[in-house]
């Protein structure tokens, strides 16, 4: 029997739950000419919710993760490669003849997809401009292309003036809906909310929260019923208590609980055993992580793990605040109802080390 829980990649179909309002909103929103900006901490379900809304719209779309891009030229090449997945080369060849720098396009014999490269040393902005111009030309106002740029805050790292250049290009486009995703709250708000940023008020800002408890509870409970006919409901409750309804970690814990139910049905304290298994698996990574934190960070992480107050006079408020901000930027800490550790299993590891 296949494990009914999935974590790590985009979830769809029977693995996708709730987000009804969000999907409806995104679906409706991209019918208009505007752009959407979606922010949430890592692994809250941005990619999944966007993929679902786009799937329901039936429109052409491309997705590029800027975290996997190493330069502006690489960004142009990756966008073009994705573009060829929705527009076969033969149909857009005439538009490529307008490129100022002609790309090398080869068919990957293994995947059947197109590989794109540009001669090194050429003006990367020109490449990007040509590629984005091609997307605009291949579409029209009644058939807009949806372009999803994931981890969009990376533009600030790729090139110092990329935000200005990109905005200048996008400004002229009328046949594209951009959906810009980001998991670094502070950098994303810097890009879209700061008056002097080129992307100031570029589109509608949307934030994605954790999954609502009732629905997620039902999702877990139904799937645990086979293994645990008597306690599936209370197990679902315990999982969500433990993870605070975090989409990814709840699925991860549920998946382990289910597996234990299958292999050791006589096991009593299933949650405890599952948590133990996850913490042990990641123990080495947690240890390495921990060793690289400075003393203030360690102190803050311990306070968050034990729910102890941060304002004890031990550290200056400004020191705590800037350390928290950095921890948040690096994804170790998230802010929902207050500051909390992002990973409940790392929290567990810290508690055990104390
Ligand atoms: N609507 C949902 N229903 C059930 N599980 C979900 C849902 N959304 C997210 N998840 C869980 O969270 C995991 C991460 O989802 P997804 O990759 O969409 O998030 P993300 O915010 O794009 O993450 P990343 O920051 O890594 O890009 C999924 O693999 C799944 O386990
Ligand atoms: Mg994602």
How would you characterize this protein structure?
- This protein has 354 residues and is of the alpha/beta class.
- Helix content is 51%, strand content 11%.
- The chain contains 15 helices and nine strands.
- It has helices at residues 20-29, 46-57, 72-86, 89-96, 124-137, 155-158, 162-172, 185-193, 213-224, 232-243, 247-263, 270-291, 295-305, 317-329, 344-353; strands at residues 36-39, 61-65, 104-107, 114-117, 145-150, 176-182, 204-207, 333-335, 339-341.
- The strands form three sheets. The chain has a five-stranded parallel sheet, with helices on both faces. Strands 3-4 form a two-stranded antiparallel sheet. A two-stranded antiparallel sheet has the order 8-9.
- A hairpin with a 6-residue loop joins β3 and β4 (114-117).
- The radius of gyration is 23 Å and the shape is globular.
- The two termini are 39 Å apart.
- Magnesium ion is lined by residues 46-47, 150.
* Largest beta-sheet details: 5 strands, parallel
Low-confidence stretches: none
**Mean of residue pLDDT values:** 95
Number of β-strand runs: 9
Task: Strand order, main sheet: write it out.
Answer: 2-5-6-1-7
Which structural class do the helices and strands define? alpha/beta
**Morphology call:** globular
% residues in beta strands: 5-15%
Round the Cα radius of gyration to an integer and report it.
23 Å
Assembly type of the chains comes to single chain
Bound chemical compounds: adenosine-5'-triphosphate, magnesium ion
């Amino acid at each position: 029997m296949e494990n009914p829980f999935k974590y790590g990649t985009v979830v769809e179909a029977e693995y996708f739950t709730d987000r009804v309002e969000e999907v409806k909103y995104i679906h409706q929103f991209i019918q208009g000419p505007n752009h959407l900006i979606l922010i949430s901490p890592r692994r809250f379900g941005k990619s999944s919710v966007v993929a679902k809304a786009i799937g329901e719209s039936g429109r052409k779309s491309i997705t590029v993760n800027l975290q996997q891009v190493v330069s502006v030229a690489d960004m142009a090449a990756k966008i073009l490669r994705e573009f060829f997945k929705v527009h076969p080369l033969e149909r857009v060849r005439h538009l490529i003849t307008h490129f100022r720098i002609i790309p090398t396009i080869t068919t990957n014999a293994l995947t059947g997809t197109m590989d794109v490269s540009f001669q090194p040393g050429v003006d990367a902005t020109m490449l990007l401009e040509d590629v984005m111009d091609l997307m605009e030309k291949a579409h029209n106002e009644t058939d807009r292309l949806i372009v999803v740029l994931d981890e969009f805050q990376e533009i600030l790292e790729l090139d110092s003036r990329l935000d200005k250049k990109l905005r200048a290009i996008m400004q002229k486009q009328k046949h594209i809906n951009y959906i810009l995703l980001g998991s670094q709250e502070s950098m994303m708000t810097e890009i879209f909310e700061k008056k002097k940023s080129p992307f100031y008020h570029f589109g509608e800002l949307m934030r994605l929260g954790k999954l609502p408890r009732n629905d997620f509870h039902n999702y877990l409970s139904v799937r645990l019923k086979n293994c645990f006919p008597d306690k599936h409901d209370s197990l679902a409750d315990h999982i969500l208590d433990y993870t605070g309804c975090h989409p990814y970690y709840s699925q991860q814990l549920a998946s382990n609980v289910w597996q234990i139910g299958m292999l050791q049905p006589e096991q009593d304290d299933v949650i405890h055993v599952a948590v133990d298994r996850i913490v042990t698996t990641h123990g080495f990574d947690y240890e390495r992580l921990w060793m690289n934190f400075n003393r203030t960070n360690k102190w803050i992480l311990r306070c968050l793990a034990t729910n102890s107050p941060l304002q004890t006079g031990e550290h200056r408020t400004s020191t705590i605040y800037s350390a928290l901000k950095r921890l948040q930027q690096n994804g170790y800490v998230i802010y929902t109802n207050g500051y909390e550790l992002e990973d409940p299993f790392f929290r567990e590891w810290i508690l055990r080390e104390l």
